[in-house]
Write a structure and sequence with these properties.
Helix 7 crosses helix 9, helix 11 crosses helix 14 and helix 13 runs antiparallel to helix 14. Helix content is 49%, strand content 12%. It is of the alpha/beta class and 337 residues long. A hairpin with a 2-residue loop joins strand 3 and strand 4. The protein has three domains: 183 residues, Rossmann fold (3-Layer(aba) Sandwich), CATH 3.40.50; 55 residues, no CATH class; 70 residues, Crystal structure of tRNA isopentenylpyrophosphate transferase (bh2366) domain (Helix Hairpins, Orthogonal Bundle). It has a seven-stranded mixed beta sheet, sandwiched between helices. Strands 6-7 form a two-stranded antiparallel ribbon. It has 15 helices and nine strands.
């Protein structure tokens, strides 16, 4: 008899679509824990601008300080609880570091494959009654999701900081043209609007001497996966994005940015994210504050479009609007667990 695969529930969708709220509700209902699959919330110290769960859930407090968020993030994120739900995938690296999809896959699998006993010890030393056993992989970074869900293999190419610095000064159009000249099939596996992803693909080609797309392979499935996608119509989604950026500003993003800018300036990987890079332009005198906020919103809206393009290609995703619809799919999925 073949061995049953570990159940895994993935919740995907564009930024600001409501994935986090849905994941909290479902993890509480189905005794689960959450692994965030987000290429921005992996950064320490970057809490408000990346809309980390613990930051958004402190929004009801009076003017939460970025320093307070930083302290709580260090204590409550990587292996801690938020509203009673175990959370992983937050605060993994410093803003000066890079983190690849291959590294995320290794990290996520180390959590999902963790034996029950350590889970019992972590949650309740006496009993497994309240132990979280259903992993929820939640996020909008499609490559992170696919790395785990599809058990992808990646090129064995270590980071080359000198190569990255050389490429970082080039325009995205120049980089894409170079990539497609060397590997035409890369357009099927690389987000060509994401400069970091394009540079990584070129870096792998430089190191291996072969096409990046040839190394990007799918292996036998490791987990029994239910894929859920949060559905929003475009106008509603864009309204949610605009509102969220306004809330981020109220929560103290400007203060958080100033602290980060003082420490790191703008050349480090973490500061290239949406919001932070627009405020770098403001700091450099290239945008007014009002323009930086609007560019922040526009950046998130453009990201949402790219994310929907990525996820719409996957016909395994069940698109849902609310917790009830999700529960109706999860209950039979878990019935054989």
């Amino acid at each position: 008899m073949s061995k049953k695969l570990q159940k895994l529930i993935a919740i995907v969708g564009p930024t600001a679509s409501g994935k986090t709220d849905l994941a909290f509700a479902l993890a509480k209902k189905f005794n689960g824990y959450i692994i965030c699959a987000d290429s921005r919330t992996i950064y320490k110290e970057m809490n408000i601008g990346t809309a980390k769960p613990f930051a958004s859930r402190m929004a009801h407090e009076t003017s939460p300080s970025p320093l307070l968020l930083k302290e709580r993030g260090a204590n409550d994120s990587r292996t801690g609880k938020i509203e009673g739900i175990e959370h992983y995938g937050l605060d993994l690296i410093a803003p000066t570091e890079y983190f690849s999809a291959a590294q995320f896959k290794e990290y996520a699998e180390s959590i999902i494959d963790m034996p029950l006993l350590p889970c019992r010890d972590r949650v309740n030393p006496v009993s497994t009654k309240h132990c979280s056993i259903i992993p929820f992989l939640v996020g909008g970074t499609g490559l992170y999701i696919s790395a785990v869900v599809d058990n992808l293999s990646f090129p064995d190419a270590p980071p080359n900081n000198n190569f990255r610095k050389e490429k970082e000064v080039l325009s995205i159009d120049t980089l894409v043209n170079d990539l497609l000249k060397k590997d035409p099939d890369a357009q099927d596996v690389v987000d060509l609007k994401n400069k970091r992803r394009v540079i990584r693909a070129l870096e792998c080609i430089e190191h291996t001497g072969t096409a990046f797309s040839r190394h990007y392979t799918q292996n036998p499935q490791k987990y029994d996966v239910l894929l859920l996608g949060v559905k929003r119509d475009r106008k509603e989604l864009y309204d949610r994005i605009n509102t969220r950026v306004d809330e981020i500003m109220k929560q103290g993003f400007l203060e958080e940015f100033e602290l980060l800018y003082t420490t790191y300036r703008c050349a480090v990987p973490g500061m290239t994210g949406i919001g932070y890079r627009q405020f770098c332009l403001w700091k450099q005198g290239k945008l007014s504050l009002e323009q930086a906020i609007e560019k922040f919103k526009q950046g998130d809206r453009n990201l949402a479009k790219r994310q929907m393009t990525w996820f719409k290609r996957d016909n395994r995703i069940h698109w849902i609007n609310n917790t009830q619809q999700a529960s109706c799919l999860i209950e039979p999925f878990l019935s054989s667990f």
